[in-house]
Amino acid sequence: MRKGFTLIELLIAVVVFAFLFIIIMRFYIVEHKTWLYMNQVAEMQQSGRVSMEEIARTIRMAGYMVPASLELIRSYDTNPDSIKIRSNFKDISTRLKFDLAIGGNLVVVDTTGFQIGGFVCLQSSEIGECGRITNITPFVLGGYLISTSSAIAGSFDKSKTVVCPVDEVTYFLKKDATGSYLMKRINREAAQIFAENIERLQFRYLCEDTIVDTLDFVDTLFNDRTVRVVYVDITARSERPDPDITTGNGYRRRQYNTGIKIRNYRY
After folding, report:
1. Could you tell me which of 201, 168, 204, 167 has the C-alpha nearest to residue 182?
2. How many CB atoms neighbour CB 56 within 10 A?
């Protein structure tokens, strides 16, 4: 005859099982919570690092194949700041199809890399000029006609002129009910989210021996042609607050800062 379990034995087994279950669940919850926080920290660091690398790489290109008539950098001390950077980022060029007289048609051989809303820049050994592109159409005599918002004032010999596209990249912060984002806009296209949870963006500029918060194109001392270093400060934060942190509304934060030397301040 087989002997079964008594009620007391069953109760003991249930209590032991429940006790082990509680221990295991508490361990799981703690480990899961730790994983979530570590994942948020990793995402925060990734956003901050990638944002800094992106802005630094773009600033290093500022002014590449840009004539002196066009600003290399336009800054806005708006707290958070924003910045516009102009350069031949694509590192391409073409030539004139015909000599360009004052007020004449700007016709080029190829328009690869040229974009409406960007700039077309012409550089000869004597002068350099730029115009913002409003339209690109095939020209009846060959090549492509580039229309600009303002007429090119100078005259250019097709055999002595380099024509290149110059794009304008803008970085700024957007804050709304859904979060705080680093935005990137190319020329006059719609701005796109580049990185999430970027809380602070500030720029300072070393002009000769003086650090300033903004640049002025008409200022003889603190302008885009005298800037030598751009200092960038970025603060990234975690996506969600951490209940273990009692300051800063409970968010984890990581600050990144660097100085980027301007390489192409003359052309």
Report:
1. 201
2. 15
Residues 244 and 41 sit within 8 Å (Cβ to Cβ): no
137-171: pLDDT as tens digits: 999 999 999 999 988 888 999 999 999 999 999 99
What is the value of pTM for the model shown?
Answer: 0.81
For 185-198, how does the pLDDT look when each residue is reduced to its tens digit (9 = 90+)? 999 999 999 999 99
Query: Three-state SS string across the chain, please?
Result: CCCCCCHHHHHHHHHHHHHHHHHHHHHHHHHHHHHHHHHHHHHHHHHHHHHHHHHHHHHHCCCCCCCCCCCCEEEECCCCCEEEEEECCCCCCECECCCECCCCCCEECCCCCCCCCCEEEEECCCCEEEEEEEEEEECCCCCEEEEECCCCCCCECCCCCEEEEEEEEEEEEEEECCEEEEEEEECCCCCEEEEECEEEEEEEEEECCEEECCCCCCCCCCCCCCEEEEEEEEEEECCCCCCCCCCHHHCCEEEEEEEEECCCCCC
Residue with tokens 């694509």, as numbered in its chain: 90
Calpha distance 127→114 (Å, rounded) = 21
Give the count of alpha carbons within 13 A of 116, CB side only.
Answer: 7
Beta bridge partners of 164: 121
Nearest to 37 by CA among 245, 193, 189, 232: 245
Question: Which pLDDT score is estimated for 224?
Answer: 72
- Cβ(167)–Cβ(89) under 8 Å? yes
